[in-house]
Amino acid sequence: MKKRWIVIAVLLLVGTSRAVSSQDYPFRNPELPLKVRVRDLIARLTLEEKVQMMKYTSPAIPRLGIPAYNWWNEALHGVARTKEKVTVFPQAIAMAATFDTEAIRKMGDIAATEGRALFNEDLKQGKTGEIYRGLTYWTPNINIFRDPRWGRGQETYGEDPYLTAKMGAAIVRGLEGDDSKYLKAVACAKHYAVHSGPEGIRHSFNAEASAYDLWDTYLPAFRELVVKAKVHGVMCAYNRFEGQPCCGNNELLQSILRNQWGFDGYVTSDCWAVNDFTQYHKTHTNNIEAVADAVLTGTDLECGNLYQNLQQGVERGLISERKINVSLSRLLTILFKLGMFDPAEMVPYASIGREVIECDAHKKHAYEMAQKSMVLLKNEDNILPLNKDKIKRIALIGPNIDNGQTLLANYFGTPSEIITPYKSLQKRLGDQIQIDSIQGIGIVDTLPGNPSFTEIAARAKKADVIIFVGGISADYEGEAGDAGAAGYGGFASGDRTTIKLPPIQTELMKALKKTGRPLILVNMSGSVMSFEWESQNADAILQAWYGGQAAGDAITDILFGMYNPSGRMPLTTYMSDNDLPAFEDYSMANRTYRYFKGEVRYPFGYGLSYTTFAYDSLNNVPEVKTGESIQVTATVTNTGECEGDEVVQLYVSHPQNGNVRMPIRALKGFQRIHLKKDESKTVTFTLTPEELALVDEQGNLIQKAGSVEIYVGGGQPGYSTGCSGTITMTGDPYVVL
Asked: Which of 64, 184, 640, 684 has its CA 20 to 30 A from that of 468?
């Protein structure tokens, strides 16, 4: 009997030894080149396993020790959709209003840090594979906010390709980190390309754009992120472009992305976009043909549930297993770069722990970004800042005075505390000033049981000042299916059908105006409002966007002068709906500050301050030979009574030629600086051939001899103080792109 147990023990030891050695594959060896490891792993997978791993819900492969992984996660303005409490920053459009690339880079780094902490904890507990817990974030959204009615425009960095490119590149660098071997997290440039509504028809819509508009407006930000920021992910859009679905588009995915730009990362479909090939676009007769075509044109990962059909595609000869391997190798390369197959002690981010989540430094940065994002649009007779020592009573009125959900916008995480305007004023000034809060109305309609407008106005008249906190929320503007709350005709499938403030809010403010008390409007929205009545009748207007978890404190700071407003508009505020071309028209003619020829309410780049700034003349602006860079220098002085930030902007204007399409002017540089009273700083910009060139009708970016006007100031020429000069370009045409 004893001998029998010895034999069993020996067999168990041998079996254990074999099990251990069976895991000692080359792909597990971190000393081998990455390509060798990826090839080894692919060689050990069956075709069925391969196609399953090309879906966002990648399953575990127990025989190889490969854990499950879910590719779908979001980090638009902080880690999103997790059940954990996390730091929530202002919405993307609000961060664009900061014109601060370093601040948004840091935001991306914080989001990656908190996401790593959650991922590391899951990994230790063996809980991989859950949605919204991975390290592949499907952000940033760098589509151009060409039309202010687009509900998802709030997810972008505005209407300008240059600002969008620089802000998008900064968050990519923040999310992905700076380690030479490992990625902290993975960013994804979306939605590629020519995608910005309407939401209601996005699954069947065919976007059409000229070669000029494609290369001048819709592609520059993607090129910046791919070529310069080296983003590791790209998401193709739902719509068709020039008749082909974007996730099966040869020009976009092969000719431009892979061949011209040399992109070697992974491409994911938007969620269930491949289904649209047959269901809505009608470009393919069945799903097997659709998935084969998607992979052949370069869509490596499917967010959806069709890629299992690739196995039948191989069997029918529609696609080869070799092509499957190409896409899978891109996906596995990402997982290797995240350190998923290496010992934790080798991965510099594997030790990040839960203590970083919502730490004081992270919350402080969310607060500072909210401060920087808010744009003071009007300040009649310098009514702001308010003097807390002279004000005894405030009437705080409106649908967003205490609506924490509004501050979180869409694609949001949930913080431990949301500071609304009401909570901030009560906490910080409630022992000194009486805060009479009256919600009064909903965002688009009256509330049952609430006082009448006459009664609200009577109460407000007792106050020294009225602060109306209005606007809309992500319940009304956003992604189709997530937004478009019923009850008001100004919205459709998440988009807006008008840029007016909801009429109920204007009507209440008209009643409040009759009290004779100063009326301050704080507007929360992800886009612009035309403010047709408000701009003429409110004493001050503060555009507060969707400001994240600390928005209330940032609003209080600005209203009472504890922070000097310094946000700048990343969008053009048009006078009315009549200024807007058809939503479905993707031509940039008469759109955005670069091409709009009419009068505007508040221009792109605009924002007021509590101090004033002066600009000295541009220093030594000489000739430049085509193909060479040039430096432009200006000195900025704070000539006012308080310290504050100035957003210094550089615009380039080429002589207008009626036969040649070109922007009226274009932003080609910006820097955010802080100046104390009477302090001066010299700001230097480097203009490269790319920034001095123009796109021709064929889509080529060419720098040609001739003159170009340069303006450096606190906004666009004609709307700000600044200084100008002329650069003369000499030499033969220089092809930049």
From this structure: 640
Phi, then psi, of 383 in degrees rounded to 5: -65, -30
pLDDT digits over 150-178, tens only? 999 999 999 999 999 999 999 999 999 99
User: Which helix (DSSP H) or strand (DSSP E) does residue 241 occupy?
Assistant: strand 240-241
Q: Return the number of other C-beta atoms located less than 10 Å from residue 338's C-beta.
A: 24
Least confident of 18-32, 247-261, 459-473, 542-556: 18-32
Handedness of CA 107, 108, 113, 116 (dihedral sign): positive
- The pLDDT score that the predictor gives to residue 317 is 98
pTM: 0.96
Token pair of 164, please?
Answer: 């969008």
Strand order in the sheet with 540-543: 375-379, 540-543, 519-524, 465-471, 393-397, 434-438
Q: How confident is the model at residue 486 (pLDDT cuts 50, 70, 90)?
A: low
610 DSSP assignment: S
CA distances from 383 to 12, 168, 397, 562 (A): 83, 36, 18, 15
Give the active site residues: 270, 477
The dihedral sign for the CA sequence 40, 44, 47, 51: negative
Of the candidates 25, 212, 221, 259, the one whose C-alpha atom is nearest the C-alpha of residue 140 is 221
- For every residue of 148-198, DSSP letters joined together read TT-GGGGGS--S-HHHHHHHHHHHHHHHH-S-SS--SSB--EEEESS----
Q: Minimum mean pLDDT among 27-31, 255-259, 481-485: which range?
A: 481-485
What are the tokens at 44? 């050990």
Q: With CA atoms as reference, report the closest residue to 46 among 308, 317, 335, 305.
A: 308
How far from 663 is each of 142, 447, 632, 652, 695, CA to CA, in Å?
20, 47, 21, 9, 10
Asked if the bond preceding 385 is cis, omega within 30° of 0, the reply is yes
Mean pLDDT computed over every residue of the chain: 95
Length of the chain: 737
| C-alpha dihedral sign at 194, 200, 206, 208 | negative
Q: How many Å apart are CA 136 and CA 111, to the nearest integer?
A: 12
